[in-house]
Design goal:
Blueprint (H helix, E strand, L loop, with lengths): L9 H16 L6 E4 L8 H4 E8 L17 E7 L5 E5 L11 H13 L4 E10 L9 E9 L20 H10 L5 E6 L8 H9 L4 E3 L3 H9 L3 E11 L10 H25 L1
Parallel strand pairs: 1-4, 1-5, 5-9, 6-7, 7-8
Antiparallel strand pairs: 2-3, 3-4, 5-8, 6-9
Amino acid sequence: MTNDAYEQDPTVLALEAATVIREHSGIEEYDIALVLGSGWGGAADLIGETVNEVPAWQVPGFHAPAVAGHGATMRTIKVAESGKTALVLGSRTHYYEGKGLRAVAHGVRTARALGCKTMVLTNGCGGLNPQWSPGQVVLIRDHINLTGRSPVEGANFIDLTDLYSQKLRDLAHSVDASLPEGVYVQFPGPHYETPAEVQMAKIIGGDLAGMSTTLESIAAREAGMEVLGLSLMTNLAAGISATALSHEEVLEAGRDAGPRIAKLLADVVQKI
């Protein structure tokens, strides 16, 4: 998939993608969409019965994932307890890939074109709170977007006061009351943050540092969706720990926490 596809109206491209997904699944209306970041992939197997799975690159505007640890399909699942239909977006486009903001928001807009009213965004990230250990799941209660960019186009002034739904966070707490909440800070990437940048993020109110999620959340709010954000803390951020950072560390932490966080997320989705 080239960047040329994103030069067309993003709403039209999302509708085209939704049409292809419907043709494959035979399902007209969807309820919930999930983006499963690093470490979260196992949740798809626990949410319910997979009705259909299509390679991401066969759907307009999507492509094979550029980052290890992310899936490569668009998966339609019937949620076991509620009977709702969920779409697992296995192809997340990160801002640092250079494909543009429309590409980053395309998954969210496709989910909305399918009828989804709830967007569940997950990620693996660095922790700024030394009291948390790798493997900790944190509910996102707010974010700080340090990319300096927005997926919203034109004079469209979106209120982000309650971007991360209190109702959905309460629902997650009903599954696990011990889950802490925090502020997620998105850096542009793909390089990791310097210790000084991590200290800056702490000073301005951040608890978590990563390279995704905030732009997708903004796009979801623009589309009128409720947002639930969950971060898996895969490592302590630069300077918080003396250990050098690596993507292999992120993948290893995701593998170690995988079964536990997959069940947590699946249990939460059953209640949405």
